[in-house]
């Protein structure tokens, strides 16, 4: 399977995928449908009760997941992303989450993916010290901020109603207390 160009709508970029790679952009769906979709593609069956339960403690607003399938000696990598229908109508949290998952996709699969992310960040913030950030969740949150910035939402501006909405929506998913999120916000808003 040759390389193909895919558009990552929320980051606003087009990238060339590597060879033997399939991207499954699942869109908005429930987490159980997402697990079903992965299991159908990977094993030709739906997710089992045990598989569903093994994830039941976590609350997903979105996810990135990848694996390899080997057929007649040929390995193909598959990568899936989804965003939960729970936040489909919660704007701008839905945009942030989509940008976050698309960033996992480029960091894990696109050569120089981290450089691509840096270029996106340069449109909205000072990227001094970017190379020192190695935590993938922090980088993915920065991709989420780049998406919000492209929609003209000022990151960290408490006077702005859309930023205010984002903080309120994020509280439900406990994302605002995560150290990776705080690191990303500090990085974006530093002077
Ligand atoms: Zn993530």
What are the defining features of this structure?
single chain, 191 residues, three-stranded mixed sheet, two-stranded antiparallel sheet, 5 strands, 43% helix, binds zinc ion
In short, what is this structure?
This protein is of the alpha+beta class. 43% of the residues lie in helices and 20% in strands. 30% of the residues are buried.
What radius of gyration results from the CA coordinates?
Answer: 17 Å
Helix count from the secondary structure assignment: 7
Return the string of H and E elements: EEEHHEEHHHHH
Instruction: Estimate percent helicity.
Output: 40-55%
Can you tell me the residue ranges where pLDDT is under 50 for at least 5 consecutive residues? Answer: none
Provide the spatial order of strands within the biggest beta sheet: 3-5-4
Would you tell me the overall average pLDDT? 94
Overall number of strands? 5
Structural category: alpha+beta
Bound molecules: zinc ion
What's the structural domain tally?
A: 1
Largest sheet: 3 strands, mixed
Shape summary: globular
Reconstruct the topology from this structure:
Layout: E1 5-8, E2 13-16, E3 21-29, H1 31-43, H2 49-54, E4 62-71, E5 74-84, H3 93-109, H4 113-122, H5 136-150, H6 161-171, H7 179-189
Parallel strand pairs: 3-5
Antiparallel strand pairs: 1-2, 4-5
Helix pairs in contact: 3-4, 3-5, 4-5, 5-7
The protein binds zinc ion.
Residues 100, 104, 137, 140 line the site of zinc ion.
Question: What report would you give on this structure?
Answer:
With 191 residues, this protein is an alpha+beta fold. The chain has one domain. The chain has seven helices and five strands, in the order βββααββααααα. β1 and β2 form a beta hairpin. The longest helix is centred in the middle third of the chain and has 17 residues. The termini are far apart. The model has no long low-confidence stretch (mean pLDDT 94). Bound molecules: zinc ion. The site of zinc ion has 4 residues, from α3 and α5.
